[in-house]
């Protein structure tokens, strides 16, 4: 098998959408009612909200995670030091039972931060909320050492959450290189969120590094604002021996293309003795480069903001050994924080007096370690109840048999199905090459991001009209 025929299963990426900043025609069309149709979500007579046919979301996976102790990753990776890993076939033992399309959907767990940004009249407060959303979006990777399944070409994933106020659609638009496109919009027509990331993975002997590629865009419709940024680099350590652990590092620059304001966030590398592990430090500046706010915290715990002069004064006092680092009663301005149980590591962030809380991580389920360290939100993503097959596109991740078997703890069946799907994809690619046919994406098209001018995948619209007659047979 040559390299072009080889199916690979590694972290992919995602792309973008509506270049005009307007909502998809599915919202504009009068014959599509997102609040009443049973195809997207509905209200039952008892008043409880139902999303994608599910009234109450599950809190656990069907089967616990299996042990990986019997598998040797070194036998696979020892020939790959310094190489790009996207074309290296990995055994299913190192996966988690989610497709990467579902993994990127975890961005939407903290949609309330987008809603908060929309509600602010002050552009500085909007940028602070957007920065918190950008950090919260990578927080789900904490302790997630399993690799999501690489999406099959043409695979899709949708999620409608009336309780959180959004709907989401993604599609695997390219196989070489692996690219996933996604698009999400607020049900109140208040925001559009889209982006593209296709991480380049490399193995360095003891660690695997995922370098992000592509741009993420958030549009706040009411304020006529667009924000763009890229994710930090993610690194998984001790892939050969020892306890796996994750760090993220690099500079994330969030740009408000309407005002010229920028937020520069430095995700710090671990450093000597691990002092800087998970730490974030940055600031917001206006178009004249005047610092307006300092942001600090940890991407695994919480994010705070404070006036720049107060921050600098506190740091000077800290260096003198007389800093006032006691914990005040902070102005906890982030929704849903009061009900959250604080993780033990939460106490490791020294809060400067006068700081305002922007975001705090939610506690994970008590049995999370037996569920691939999933968050409560992640646990629900592959949920499939009776009747949903009639609603979903036939290419939806929930219908993918290898992931379903793995979720159910049927590892041997999952491995066999994975091999079958790989072979089916290879055969389809050979058939297209024989007939000199190009792959045609269904819900996205290749274009240009209107704010950055960079290549992007834009949403074609129409998915929620649910005309799935011409979807490919990939399973």
Task: Please tell me about this protein's structure.
- There is one protein chain.
- The protein is 19% helix and 25% strand.
- The protein has 475 residues and is an alpha+beta fold.
- The strands form four sheets. The protein has a 16-stranded mixed sheet that branches.
- Helix 4 packs antiparallel against helix 5 (123-139) and helix 8 runs antiparallel to helix 9 (411-434).
- Residues 1-47 and 323-346 have low confidence and may be disordered.
Q: First CA to last CA: what distance? A: 22 Å
How many separate helices? 9
Number of strands: 22
* Radius of gyration, CA atoms, in whole angstroms: 22 Å
Most strands sheet = 16 strands, mixed
* Mean pLDDT level: 81
Strand content of the residues, in percent?
25-35%
Give a short summary of the structure.
This protein is α+β, with helices and mostly antiparallel strands.
Structure keywords:
single chain; 475 residues; alpha+beta; two-stranded antiparallel sheet; 9 helices; 22 strands; globular; disordered N terminus
Task: Walk me through the topology.
Blueprint: H1 25-28, E1 41-43, E2 49-51, H2 74-77, E3 95-99, H3 100-105, H4 111-119, H5 123-139, E4 147-149, E5 156-161, E6 166-174, E7 179-186, E8 191-195, E9 200-203, E10 207-211, E11 216-220, E12 225-229, E13 233-237, E14 245-256, E15 262-267, E16 279-285, E17 291-298, E18 302-306, H6 308-320, E19 331-332, E20 356-360, H7 376-379, H8 401-407, H9 411-434, E21 444-448, E22 455-459
Parallel strand pairs: 3-4, 19-20
Antiparallel strand pairs: 1-2, 5-6, 6-7, 7-8, 8-11, 9-10, 10-13, 11-12, 12-14, 13-14, 14-15, 15-16, 16-17, 17-18, 18-20, 21-22
């Amino acid at each position: 098998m040559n390299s072009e025929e080889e199916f690979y299963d590694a972290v992919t990426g995602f792309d973008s959408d509506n270049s005009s900043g307007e909502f998809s025609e599915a919202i504009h069309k009068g014959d599509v009612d997102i609040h009443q149709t049973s195809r997207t979500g509905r209200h039952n007579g008892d008043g409880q909200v139902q999303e994608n046919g599910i009234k109450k979301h599950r809190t656990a996976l069907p089967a616990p995670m299996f042990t990986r102790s019997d598998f040797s990753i070194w036998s696979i990776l020892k020939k790959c030091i310094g190489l790009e890993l996207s074309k290296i076939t990995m055994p299913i033992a190192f996966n988690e039972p989610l497709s990467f399309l579902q993994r990127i959907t975890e961005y939407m767990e903290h949609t309330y931060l987008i809603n908060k940004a929309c509600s602010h009249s002050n552009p500085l407060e909007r940028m602070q909320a957007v920065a918190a959303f950008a950090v919260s979006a990578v927080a789900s990777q904490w302790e997630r050492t399993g690799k999501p399944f690489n999406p099959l070409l043409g695979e899709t994933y949708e999620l409608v959450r009336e309780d959180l106020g959004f709907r989401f659609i993604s599609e695997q638009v390219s196989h070489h290189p692996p690219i996933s496109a996604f698009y999400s919009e607020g049900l109140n027509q208040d925001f559009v969120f889209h982006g593209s990331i296709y991480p380049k993975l490399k193995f360095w002997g003891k660690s695997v590094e995922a370098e992000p590629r592509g741009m993420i865009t958030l549009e706040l419709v009411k304020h006529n604002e667009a924000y763009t940024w890229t994710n930090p680099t993610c690194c998984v350590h001790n892939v050969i021996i020892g306890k796996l652990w994750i760090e993220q590092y690099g500079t994330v620059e969030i740009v408000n293309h309407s005002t010229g304001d920028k937020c520069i966030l430095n995700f710090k590398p671990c450093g000597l003795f691990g002092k800087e592990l998970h730490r974030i430090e940055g600031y917001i500046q206006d178009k004249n480069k005047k610092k307006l706010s300092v942001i600090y915290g940890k991407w695994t715990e919480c994010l705070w903001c404070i006036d720049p002069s107060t921050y600098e004064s506190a740091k000077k006092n800290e260096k003198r050994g007389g800093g006032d680092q006691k914990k005040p009663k902070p102005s906890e301005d982030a929704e849903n924080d009061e009900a959250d149980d604080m993780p033990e590591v939460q106490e490791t962030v020294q809060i400067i007096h006068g700081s305002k809380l922007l975001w705090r991580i939610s506690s994970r389920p008590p049995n999370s370690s037996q569920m691939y360290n999933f968050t409560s939100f992640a646990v629900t993503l592959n949920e499939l109840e009776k009747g949903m097959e009639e609603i979903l596109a036939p290419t939806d991740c929930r219908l993918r048999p290898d992931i379903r078997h793995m979720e159910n703890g049927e590892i041997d069946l999952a491995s066999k199905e994975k091999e079958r799907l790989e072979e089916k994809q290879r055969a389809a690619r050979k058939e297209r090459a024989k007939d000199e046919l190009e792959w045609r994406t269904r819900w996205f098209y290749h274009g240009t991001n209107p704010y950055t001018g960079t290549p992007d995948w834009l949403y074609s619209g129409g998915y929620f009209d649910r005309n799935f007659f011409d979807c490919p047979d990939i399973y």
